[in-house]
Amino acid sequence: MRSLIPVSLLVVLTVSLPGGATPHPIPDATQVVNLTAKRYEFDPPTIRVKQGTRIQLKITATDHAHGFKISDVPDGGGKPGLVFASSQDCVRMDEGQSATVEFVAQNPGTYSFRCCVHCGWHHRAMRGEVVVEP
């Protein structure tokens, strides 16, 4: 009986200590942004994020095939400021399909993106930007 008291006391203290037996979930630091590609525009055309944030762009083509390509170098030049989860090239989405592009916004600046799949007469006007704020 005497040996059960210290063991019982240890169990009670361990369970009742703050954070002792309760796991604390780690918050997901990924910012998800839904982006729509449709007839010569991206919606929203400007995406604002904070420096150091992991970004997941979910891009959906609503009317026909579109593409997505973003520069890893800010407008005006400089060193690359977007770090991609996988190699970044033209990402194609057919009508009704979605694609995901993930990166870390490492350095402040404005990073242009565009449609990289010819989608019609005003294809060249289909542009947008990611603004990374300090």
What is this structure, in a nutshell?
The chain is mainly beta and 134 residues long. It contains 1 helix and 10 strands. The longest helix has 13 residues, at 4-16.
Description:
There is one protein chain. By secondary structure, the protein is mainly beta. It has a single domain (26-133), classed as Immunoglobulin-like, CATH 2.60.40.420. The chain has one helix and ten strands. It has one helix spanning 4-16, and strands spanning 30-38, 41-43, 46-50, 54-61, 66-70, 82-84, 91-93, 98-105, 109-114, 127-133. The strands form two sheets. Strands 2-1-4-8-6 form a five-stranded mixed sheet, with no helix packed on it. A five-stranded mixed sheet has the order 3-10-9-5-7, with no helix packed on it. Strand 1 and strand 2 (41-43) form a beta hairpin. It is globular and about 35 Å long. The model is unreliable at 4-27 (pLDDT under 50).
